[in-house]
Design brief:
Layout: H1 2-7, E1 16-21, E2 30-32, E3 35-37, E4 43-48, E5 52-56, E6 68-75, H2 81-91, H3 106-111
InterPro entries: Piwi (IPR003165), RNaseH-like_sf (IPR012337), RNaseH_sf (IPR036397)
Organism: Panagrolaimus superbus
Domain Piwi: 2-109
């Protein structure tokens, strides 16, 4: 944040800082007609209101889907938590080689 004021003391951009990980043992299931199945792609479960959620943007091709754990660290922008959830979900569809959503948010998928 201090780097921005070095460029221009009047410049005070608003930041949203999000941490994502798949390094956890949490699994998500849905019950359909008495059967346990993977959740529908695009399912988002709020763990801590306004702070943490599990997202399953992708369809499990084999086995059990592993959700992405998303933690909102900082939100200076005033965007609602629902807006952040929709933005994160939309980023899962931005892969250049497939129209299907990726398991990680695309910018992070590219880094890995």
């Amino acid at each position: 944040m201090n780097a921005c004021t070095r460029i221009d003391p009047k410049w005070k951009p608003k930041f949203i800082l999000i941490v994502t990980t798949k390094e956890h043992d949490t699994r998500v299931f849905s019950r359909v007609n008495g059967r346990i199945e993977n959740p529908t792609p695009g399912t988002m479960l709020v763990l801590r209101a306004g702070k943490e959620l599990l997202a399953t943007p992708q369809k499990a091709l084999k086995g059990t889907v592993q959700p992405v754990k998303i933690t909102l660290i900082k939100n200076d922008s005033g965007v609602s938590f629902d807006g952040v959830m929709k933005f994160v979900h939309a980023l899962s569809y931005t892969h250049q080689l497939t129209c299907s959503p990726t398991g990680l948010v695309e910018p992070i998928y590219q880094v890995c």
